[in-house]
Amino acid sequence: MGSITARKGADGSVSYRAAIRINKKGYPAYSESKTFHSKKVAENWLKKREVEIQENPDILLGKEQLIDLTLSDAIDKYLDEVGSEYGRTKRYSLLLIKKLPIARNIITKIHSIHLAEHVALRRRGVPNLGLDPIATSTQQHELLHIRGVLSHASVMWGMEVDLSSFDKATAQLRKTRQISSSKVRDRLPTNEELIALTKLFAERWKLNKYGTKYPMHLIIWFAIFSCRREAELTRLWLQDYDSYHSSWKVHDLKNPNGSKGNHKSFDVLEPCKTIIELLLDNEVRSRMLRLGYDEQLLLPLNPKSIGKEFREACKILGIEDLHFHDLRHEGCTRLAEQSFTIPEIQKVSLHDSWGSLQRYVSVKSRRNVIQLEEVLRLIDET
């Protein structure tokens, strides 16, 4: 009645899809499937689900009882139905919430006290799960993710979830500053920081220290000149690069309304073209491809490892409070300083509106910003 199929993702990770198909006399054809990161977990779910169906045949008629659905079970059901429509960040956040005490509550009985306890717990940290205290803005994001599941349960599953009380509770938490919106970040790397990072990464690559396969000296400048997000860098397919029209299509671009199917092309400017040519160099590609990722990608690398390499380098150099995402901010700011109009910047950054672009464009006027010629000199490519 059930089967498990292993699937390999573009990043090399393996997932397991458990599927149930039933053709029973007197009932319509029934099928159900879920994807797991562990084969053992997939097998356990399959066994549990088969028992549930045997004990409650009405499930085959679509009359499954959801009265006692916990938040943890609701998250599973929600991700199974619509999880593919959202990005990695939201999925990761929901899977993390499943591990916390609030997930054990039945969703029709989640009240303000449960939200307050959850916020207090996350503010203190959860040592047994290795979770440090989180910022008030992250708290707000978690509650919004929970609300998304509850709203889906109310509308799509016909469950009597009290969203009004949920909204009143979050409004009070916001009023008492226990949760808040994200602060506008305007941190830009200095010339000295960019030079130090470029030199360190170029030296590592040239000497092949630690067998490095990540050309970070090129990646950081590609991120700046393309204004791309960290995760987008490793989702750029070579077939989508139109060198004649100087554009590159990005698949599943991040969007508040869902990233699935949101494909857009960004303008590839001359400095970005130069870095692309260096990334396509045979030696550079051969070293990257040793990691085993798809050779049709510009950067056949793990996006998490790119972030890790960057953070470790900042730590070595004593650079504080600089995130890889700040390179996107740097790229957008450079375009503004070159007198690009807002629509012209949007053609590169792919922000949907000025409101979302504004936080990335600094109003500071800088002098002697490091240019491509010096970058090439630093990495010995003049």
From TrEMBL:
Residues 183-377 form the Tyr recombinase domain. GO terms for molecular function: DNA binding. PROSITE patterns: TYR_RECOMBINASE. The keyword Signal does not apply. It comes from the Bacteria. Keywords: DNA recombination. SUPFAM superfamilies: DNA breaking-rejoining enzymes. GO terms for biological process: DNA integration; DNA recombination. InterPro entries: DNA_brk_join_enz (IPR011010), Integrase-like_cat_sf (IPR013762), Integrase_catalytic (IPR002104). This is Phage integrase family protein. The lineage of its organism: Bacteria, Pseudomonadati, Pseudomonadota, Gammaproteobacteria, Moraxellales.
